Please model this.
Amino acid sequence: MILQNEHGRAFREAWIAGVTKHYPGEPKPGYTAPWEDTPDWERASAAAVYDQVLAFITATDGATTKLTREQKGKFVALCWIGQIYKHFPDPKPAYVADWDQLPDWQQETDADIFERIEQQR
Model:
């Protein structure tokens, strides 16, 4: 549980850093809420996606560094969509939007998250 908590926190920190860097204007408070104020489902999802990205990096012996930023971001986004479906039986369409429908700031943030996990491994 401790490692899961650390991975979830690392994911959340990378998310907040990306939102702070890429979001146009002032982000919604929930986007930058600290770990302690993050709902349980979101904490579990953050840890799960971190672990999926880490497993992908490990399974390729780090060859993921050759992926484009878009490919990295798409992987994070798809893993997150899986978590949304896990926790919400009928999510809002915006919560499960395809990559091309995501705003630029979110695409950049997802790519940043992947790259942060690559650097931390």
Observations:
- The mean pLDDT is 96.
- The chain has one domain: 2-120.
- The helical segments are 2-22, 40-59, 69-87, 104-120.
